[in-house]
Here is the input.
Amino acid sequence: MGPRAGVFCHNGLGDGINCLVLSNTLQLNGWKVDTYQNTIGSMQSWFPHLPVQSYPSLEELPRILGSYDWFFVVQNTTDSFVQQLISEGKRRFPDRLKVLYFYPSPHIVNEPYYADCLTEFDLSIAENLRLFCERILHLPRIAKNSGLIPPSSLVHRKHKKRVVIHPTSARLSRSWPREQFVKLALHLSELGYEVSFIPGGAKEKENWKEVEELGFSIPLFSSLDGLASFIYESGFFVGNDSGPGHLASALQIPTLTFCRSKRLADLWAPSFSKGVVLTPNPWIPNWKGLRFRDRYWKYCISLAKARRGFEKLQQLVAGGRG
Here is the structure.
């Protein structure tokens, strides 16, 4: 039996989907891997070979420290379990606990354990994890994806003219304007596409009733399994830089993503399959103390630019005959 490893991710959907690249690669090389993450567990049937567990409590730290040969921990300055795991693990077995830093800044090289992963902030998270497995762990087999295995009952991109729009995100400041999403949906409808909005659960559906009145559907899902199935059989995905976009990309669905900066997009935009990422023009002033581009980025991506972005996505798909 190979080494035992614990992979400790952030709890966002996109974080979990990306970290499965690491778990999948370790498993591919004969390691026994447990992934700790509080969101993607409801999709366990999509990666039965990669067991996912909920995050442990701080009281479980002694058991966790005795359960694995290797630990891979995404740094989280606000989580007491992660902080204690890193502190105690680095004291007891410094070479077998690797800290992974995933934020877009050139100052990342100044982090105390930067050499554990050698994160390159201008490469995607998935690519950074592949490089980590190659140049730090020296593993002979490198996974190209998150290891998702769609149910055999589903047909990939069965509804090629269905566009899924995810117009929300964890914070309003990360979302392209709601009225722009509606206008883009109307444009896509005129082109013959069937548009479905997935703003969130029942509460968010209530907040988006106007799109139903315009003839667009808002399907509800009881779990991520249902959401994944719906996205997997859709033709395109459009949304903010958030978890469902990473899920769509991992399922090989062409994605159009709105992101508040190119630096953030380089690291965190969905990167598993064909995609177009729209960011504000880098020439828009963003001086320290003003941060005009950071504060008003969403108004710097026009509807016309979004239309062109979708046209480019169509061309990418057509070029690959997808």
